[in-house]
Design a protein that fits this description.
The protein is an alpha+beta fold and 342 residues long. It folds into 3 domains: 2-101, Ubiquitin-like (UB roll), CATH 3.10.20.740; 119-133 and 143-298, Alpha-Beta Plaits, CATH 3.30.70; 309-342, no CATH class. Helix content is 22%, strand content 18%. It has 10 helices and 14 strands. The chain has helices at residues 18-25, 88-101, 119-127, 162-170, 202-206, 270-275, 295-298, 314-318, 321-326, 334-341, and strands spanning 2-5, 8-11, 51-56, 69-70, 81-83, 144-145, 150-152, 176-179, 186-189, 212-214, 227-232, 241-247, 250-256, 283-287. The strands form 4 sheets. Strands 2-1-5-3-4 form a 5-stranded mixed β-sheet, with helices on both faces. Strands 13-12-11-14 form a 4-stranded antiparallel β-sheet. Strand 8 and strand 9 form a beta hairpin. Helix 2 packs across helix 3. InterPro entries: 2Fe-2S_ferredoxin-like_sf, 2Fe-2S_ferredoxin-type, NADH_UbQ_OxRdtase_ferredoxin, NADH_UbQ_OxRdtase_Gsu_4Fe4S-bd, Prok_molybdopt-oxidoreductase. Its cofactor is [2Fe-2S] cluster; [4Fe-4S] cluster.
Length: 342
């Protein structure tokens, strides 16, 4: 099947969604996605960030779709034409969706561990408005420890339900989920049970905001101050392939390896994530590069920066004569300094 997105055509297999087709093309035509996660079955269709305008339904039925559709759950049709970033209607809708997601979101970016690699931060930077029309009182929750190494900040949650789906997919018995309904909906554990299984840390990796944070990394550093390296180890619980984030010779945190859409290549176990923080625990492969547009990518910290040789003159190093007298320095004539230098 042939589909066209913002004037760029591509051949796709039947069953491919518009979002998947856009990612095959790449670049600016790719819609943002806060709830869709390709590694999680049944994800998508909740945040409405990926709305697109189908200007031509198919070759068989060329009528446009009357409303914007969620690209993550809408299948492609042969001859379909879609407007994504090129549509002012889509851009205005994404601004409205971003404003809606920020209704209850606190201004925690200065203290949030997710800042710098936050999908919501990137979304609001590109599509957000400088002001909000929301004047009601925001809902608030206290931080909650839902496991020995995981803390939940429900104030930041956008209810994408990725954490619920990853628990369904990787564990036999999920003990947390969406409680209540409507504006009162929140993520919590059943009867205050702690989430304590070997793959629970993957909820941190799939969270698009800072709602689920790693307690072993909490307030240690900003992500753009640490350098990511690909590393691996022999592990009998997972693949053992990770990204270790280092500050100097210290490993501050361990995450799964993520692609340009901030999705992990493979899920990792809690032993690799929380317990192995020594350099000797890992085989370091080399620096990790990022393709996704974000704060940490713009910083280009993974690039080698050559040292710049600073040239100066001898009299500047020794100091001016009047300055040396003011601070009672030993009077060293310039000619003696030049001779001693030779």
């Amino acid at each position: 099947m042939k589909v066209t997105i913002d004037g760029q055509s591509i051949e796709v297999e039947p069953g491919t969604t518009i979002l998947q087709a856009a990612r095959m093309i790449g670049g600016e035509v790719v819609p943002p996605a806060m709830c869709y996660y390709s590694k999680l079955e049944g994800s998508g269709g909740k945040c409405r960030c990926c709305l697109v305008d189908v200007t031509k339904g198919s070759e068989a039925d060329p009528r446009p779709m009357p409303k914007l559709v969620a690209s993550c759950v809408t299948g492609c049709q042969d001859g379909m034409e879609i407007a994504s970033k090129a549509s002012p209607r889509v851009q205005e809708a994404r601004k409205s969706v971003t404003e809606f997601l920020l209704i209850n979101h606190p201004l925690d970016c200065p203290v949030c561990d997710q800042a710098g690699e936050c999908d919501l931060q990137n979304l609001s930077f590109e599509h957000g408005k400088s002001e909000t029309r929301f004047i009601e009182t925001k809902r608030t929750f206290e931080p909650e420890d839902i496991g020995p190494n995981i803390q939940l900040h429900m104030n930041r949650c956008i209810l994408c339900q990725r954490c619920v789906q990853v628990a369904d997919q990787l564990t036999d018995k999920r003990v947390h989920g969406v409680m209540d309904r409507g504006d009162h909906a929140n993520i919590s554990t059943c009867i205050s049970k702690a989430i304590d299984n070997e793959m629970s840390g993957n909820m941190i990796d799939v969270c698009p905001v800072g709602a689920l944070t790693d307690k072993t990394f909490r307030f240690k550093s900003r992500v753009w101050f640490s350098k990511p390296y690909n590393a691996h180890r022999d592990c009998d619980k997972c693949c053992g392939k990770t990204t270790v984030w280092m500050f100097g010779n210290e490993i501050q945190r361990v995450t799964g390896r993520k692609d340009e859409y901030h999705e992990v290549d493979e899920f990792i176990c809690n032993t690799c994530r929380f317990d192995k923080k020594e350099v000797n625990d890992w085989t370091i492969e080399g620096p990790r590069t990022f393709e996704k547009t974000s704060v940490i990518n713009r910083n280009k910290y993974a690039l080698h920066v050559p040292k710049v040789e600073i040239k100066t003159e001898d009299h500047i190093l020794i100091g001016r004569e009047e300055d040396r007298k003011k601070i009672s320095m030993i009077d060293v004539p310039l000619e003696n300094a030049e001779n001693s230098k030779q």
